[in-house]
Amino acid sequence: MSSYFSGIIRKFVKKERRSFIKKISLASFASVLGAEIVFAENMPKGYLPVFLEDQDNLKSLGKDPALKVLNDRPWNVETPIHLLDDKVTPAEKMFLRNNGLLPEKIDPSNWTLTIKGESVSQEKTYTLAELKSKFKTHTYQLTLECGGNGRGEFYPPAEGNQWGQGAVSCATWTGIRVKDLLDDVGINNDAVYVGYHGTDAHLSGDPSKESISRGIPIDKAKQDETLIAFQMNGKDIPMAHGYPLRLVAGGFPASASGKWINGLSIRNKIHDGSKMESPSYRVPIEPVEPGERSPDENMRIIESMPVKSIITYPKSGAEFSFGKNLDIRGHAWAGEEMISKVAYSIDFGTTWHACQLDAPVNRFAWQHFKANIKFPKKGYYEVWAMATDDQGRSQPMVVPGWNPKGYLNNACHRIAVKVI
Amino acid sequence: MQSNDIRKLLTAVAALGLMMVFLIVSAIGLIVMVQFQPEILTNWFADSKEEVPAVEVQVVDEEWTDEKIEEVGLVQGEGLQLVLANCTNCHSAKLVTQNRFTREGWIQVIRWMQETQGFWDLGSNEDPIVDYLSTHFAPEAKGRRKPLEVEWYSLE
């Protein structure tokens, strides 16, 4: 009986998902299903329980169907490396890392951003239209990489989404400078940190919890390239990436760049929002043995991401005839630093050869490299890429130091090729 | 048949009809009420729930077919139903099946969710859940770097 009704509901939901949700409560779902939903009263209005989820959602998120869904609640979607070949990452190929539920029903005409916190002289609220008209807009290409990119290679395994190397993007972001906004609000000299607040509901449905509320140190907030963005690649920011407003702090773990933001807290201490606490987005100060617990006082917040590179062409697994040279290309980035060189090896690091490297379009944008490789004989090869930043730091060939949450794996990327 | 009997029958039919009309009108009224003010039901539901301990109330998911269980990476085994009922309400099953931990590791993850994410106390269900997870989703040594997994194709 109940499955008969749930079948009807599911068909109906597919057609009229949004309007339907407005009219029916979860309690009535439960009554027709003949089962109670634990903590149903905590679920946000308009959220469909997992069993009624539409599996075609990846498309509706505007994503290339070739992307890999690691998790669909919350959405965590990874880009296969060869699909990151574009110099500027298009929306449909941009990885997705959400911590909470996608906000529904966003009305840009009623959207506001409130600046508050201990270190503002007076709380101030701006409409979206005011932000766009009152301040000068700026456009930068900014690299955003998930702090947990590469987590899947750590052993012992670290808890969280098991990312490969594809949780990185470099898109063009347009918005206003955070520093211009802070100047207009007027902030006190004791300001230490800027925390963001977004409208993505907590997974548990508890309205008193924020799914994520991280942020950036005040010095990062004052950099020219740190934006309150309203456009990505020249268009409104896609829904899944923070429409209508997001913070963008290039070079920092992407979790610092809050999405769907409606508030900033200017704090006189390190922001203490959700996922600012240890061990989230923190690594040991004094290195620990793999698998060892690291006390909270031995953990520091990740700021600038480490040096890294990916080979985006060709896709791993290429077979080609002996005598033919291979063109490779890719991108390299180093958090807040510049890349000074990229080298490749086809003999597992025995010898390294320089790649041609482009300067960044602007600070915190990834840099492109390419090389043309001649192979000495037929057989199986791995092409490894190693970037070095302007501080002389290179990528390790093995997985770097273990940490409890599996952050900052910047081991060299490699592809397999066969000369036949 | 006596006319008296016919009258009785007609009266009974009329009474039954009136009751039907009354029931239909009430049902329509209830539906309209819930459509316009769904909180009425929610509130009633929330109130009535307070007496029920969370541990004993579980979602019976009609849609966990064998195909779907396989698709999300879960495996059949003792404790699977408890995992489905308790571990797929807030996040998808894929978050579970991506991870690998020892028994202690899985308990740590459960404690983290309880302390920071609003997860409920599993009571006597914790043991079978942790048994299932640590049996089917245990860490496998993979060294400092695994060999590449390759799908070969011809590069034009």
Automatic annotation (TrEMBL), chain A:
Moybdenum cofactor oxidoreductase dimerisation domain span: 301-419
Keyword Transmembrane: no
UniProt keyword terms in alphabetical order: Metal-binding, Molybdenum, Oxidoreductase
Annotated Oxidoreductase molybdopterin-binding domain residues: 102-272
Residue numbers spanned by region Disordered: 275-296
Cofactor: Mo-molybdopterin
InterPro entries linked: Ig_E-set, MoCF_OxRdtse_dimer, Mopterin_OxRdtase_euk, OxRdtase_Mopterin-bd_dom, OxRdtase_Mopterin-bd_sf
Protein name, entry field: DMSO/TMAO reductase YedYZ molybdopterin-dependent catalytic subunit
Taxonomic source organism: Mongoliibacter ruber
Organism lineage string: Bacteria, Pseudomonadati, Bacteroidota, Cytophagia, Cytophagales
Automatic annotation (TrEMBL), chain B:
GO terms assigned for molecular function: electron transfer activity; heme binding
Gene3D superfamilies found in the cross-reference section: Cytochrome c-like domain
Recorded superkingdom: Bacteria
InterPro entries: Cyt_c-like_dom_sf
TM stretches of this protein: 12-34
Keywords carried by this UniProt record: Membrane, Transmembrane, Transmembrane helix
Protein name: Sulfite dehydrogenase (Cytochrome) subunit SorB
Species the sequence originates in: Mongoliibacter ruber
